[in-house]
Amino acid sequence: MLEKILKEFDLDYLACQDKTAYNDLRVKYLGKSGKVTDALKEIKNVPNENKKAYGESVNNLKVLIEKRLGELSEKLEAMEFEKLMADMERVDLTVPNAESVGSLHPITITQNKIVEIFKSMGFAVEDGNEVETDYNNFEAVNIPKNHPARDMQDTFYLENGQVLKTHTSASQNRIMRKYGAPLKAIFPGRCFRNEELDASHENTFFQLEGMMIDKDISISNLIYFMKTMLSQVFGKEVNVRLRPGFFPFVEPGFELDCSCPYCGGEGCSVCKKSGWIELCPCGMIHPRVLEMGGIDPEEYQGFAFGLGLSRLAMMNFEINDIRVLNGGKLKQLKQIKTK
Ligand code: DAH
To answer: Of 311, 321, 125, which is closest to residue 233 (Cα–Cα)?
Structure first.
């Protein structure tokens, strides 16, 4: 009888193709009045001397059927998954979707452009920290504690005394120590200041700093590089002029103006009718700053500049509110024509 059950089970097993049939199969053999269960109940009619052997055989049968049902269940699940995959709608990720194509951020585009220009002039490109030591951000660029220049660059202090860097000049010391003299490097970066926000002030903005240190470097080198770089940025020949400006880490220090690339110097709304735009504070690196960077000021001189990347991006893409840049509002950013 037990053999008959097993044979029948084998046939049912082969015929079983889905979960419903599987459940029926299970009930048919192992359910409350299933064939194996019934066979177990039969034990009461078996003569005493055969009871033990009979019991063992039915149990073996039960274990075998349970094992095979387990295998069958796994097989059916695998089959169902395969079917699901085969029926699934395919998405071709390579099809261009013009609706949702993004673009680089206006600041990234501006930065990439300037980086390429300086690279072509032999400058190394470096990254800076966003969290800086008080020493790098202030002391090493000649702004000691209690110096009034710290007031203009109020920033966010960490509990350990470090600061969110207020300017890319914070990397000057590290760059000088890394390369020594001579060096030509630029280092763009995100800066932070404790500012009241308005259309032209943000607590987070971007600068691009540069340094060139060598023997016999003079203001003419500074003018040459700035003029070349700005002419390439604006895609046309521009003029530059220097006005005196004070920054503790340069001597002499300047505000560098560029002839307005939009009106050619005639006067327009961008240059506020002056024909010039103020773009790039700069100067000859202060001997003390060189010294703190491990460079002998008797032997080497250099110039440094800090280009306002956010400002340049705003001019380039005609953005009139700086808050748009970091606001994270796609609706506003999408209106900027970056192509
Ligand atoms: N670090 C200055 C600022 O954020 C800008 C600056 C001025 C950088 C003169 C320079 C420089 O390298 O020579 O206000």
So the answer is: 311
